[in-house]
From TrEMBL:
Family: Belongs to the protein disulfide isomerase family.
Catalytic activity entry: Catalyzes the rearrangement of -S-S- bonds in proteins
Protein name per Swiss-Prot or TrEMBL: protein disulfide-isomerase
Entry's EC annotation: 5.3.4.1
NCBIfam families: pdi_dom
EC class: isomerase
Length: 403
């Protein structure tokens, strides 16, 4: 459990759109939606007493958006909500203690996540001290509420391949595809299932990455075509090469996510959030450092031209991120050397007072772990970096310049 602390976005520091001073704990935001789905009831000071203590048993998660343990619990809490979706006598809910400190103080919440079960008609909760797997949570609620709900598993993000769709998906030149050739009776295949599902979950926001599987026992011709002689066999069908490269690395979640990132050029962590170096363009980092260290405007203009030349040689995500660098350089030239620091402070104030103003929706902290590496010469004690804002839209993660 993480001890409660004040959530601070105090100038989120990253490479790409504004230079800000790191004043507090790093954090990033995303819009609309989280890992729990829509079956978990969101309680606020205005709605809490309308739900709790009435005609339902209510199991409440008190959490903070920045809490790592809370993030890890989120998918299972969402699964719990789905499992009791059709049980009218039970509600699965959550309270954001960062946004509603007084409500959480009312129930003496001192660490996150804290789980409390409120029996029907009672505002006196029972502390939950059990395990936190979906089965543990469901068993507890069933016992306390006298219900008989069963685990409701979310839909899989692993794409099922057959002879009818294999070529269209695995051989799509615009996609990087990891394919597991498996057999239903294979013990090692069964052991890989939960890990492989999490790999697929980690890359759901990447349009160019597909995590797939094919039953090579049922479709022997496919297995034979790609030289599959044992199960499970993992093969990589990269966008640039479709011969089916054998994956020979480890089979932990970390190993597989690292492999996909390296092959596809993505920057995902095991939770599906962005890694600490997402958005960085090594080819421009040294130019950025020099740009921020010189005072002469003509020298800055020369470095901008150099950056533009370097950016013109980039492709894919690197090219998109390079545009952010260029926009920062131009803004600094137009508005002055202190522009980036002021912009960072302005964004920080917005996030502290009204996070929804950034992207027009309820913002949640993303699962980015830490801040992006220092890439600029820091003239202030706190250090400075160029900044990107990470926004979650219907199409997935995207970097935007907050201006």
């Amino acid at each position: 459990m993480v001890r409660a602390r004040r959530f601070s976005v105090a100038a989120v520091c990253v490479i790409g759109a504004a230079i800000v001073c790191l004043l507090g704990a790093p954090s990033f935001v995303r819009c609309s939606g989280d890992d729990e789905g829509s079956d978990v009831l969101v309680l606020t000071p205005e709605t809490f007493d309308e739900v709790v203590g009435k005609d339902q048993h209510v199991f409440v998660k008190f959490y903070a958006p920045w809490c790592g343990h809370c993030k890890r619990l989120a998918p299972d809490w969402g699964m719990l909500g789905t499992s009791f979706k059709k049980v009218s006598s039970v509600a699965i809910a959550k309270v954001d203690c960062d946004a509603h400190k007084d409500l959480c103080s009312r129930f003496s919440i001192s660490g996150y996540p804290t789980l409390k079960f409120f029996p029907k008609g009672s505002l006196t909760p029972q502390d939950y001290q059990g395990g936190r797997t979906p089965d543990d949570l469901i068993e507890f609620v069933n016992r306390e509420a006298g219900t008989n709900a069963r685990t409701s598993k979310p839909p899989s993000n692993v794409v099922v391949l057959t002879p009818s769709n294999f070529d269209a998906i695995a051989l799509d030149a615009s996609k990087h595809v990891l394919v597991e050739f498996y057999a239903p009776w294979c013990g090692h295949c069964k052991s890989l299932v939960p890990i492989y599902e999490r790999v697929a979950n980690a890359f759901t926001a990447e349009d160019g990455v597909v995590i797939a599987k094919v039953d090579a026992d049922a479709h022997k011709d496919l297995g034979s075509k790609y030289g599959v002689s044992g199960f499970p066999t993992l093969k990589w069908f990269g966008a640039e090469s479709k011969h089916g490269e054998d994956y020979e690395g480890g089979r932990t979640l970390e190993d597989l996510v690292k492999f996909v990132n390296e092959k596809a050029g993505t920057k995902r962590n095991v939770h599906g959030g962005l890694t600490a170096d997402a958005g960085l363009v090594p080819e421009l980092d040294e130019i950025a450092k020099e740009f921020m260290s010189v005072d002469d405007e003509s020298a800055k203009e020369g470095l901008l031209k150099k950056a533009e030349e370097g950016a013109s040689k980039l492709t894919g995500a690197a090219a998109a991120h390079a545009e952010i660098y260029l926009k920062v350089f131009k803004s600094v030239l137009k508005k002055g050397a202190d522009y980036a620091v002021k912009e960072g402070e302005r964004i920080s104030r917005i996030l502290k007072s009204n996070a929804s103003a950034v992207c027009g929706g309820v913002l949640k902290e993303s699962e980015v772990e830490g801040v992006m590496p220092l890439a600029l010469a820091a003239k202030r004690p706190c250090g400075c970096r160029i900044r990107l804002v990470c926004v979650f839209s219907l199409s997935g993660w995207r970097w935007v310049f907050a201006e």
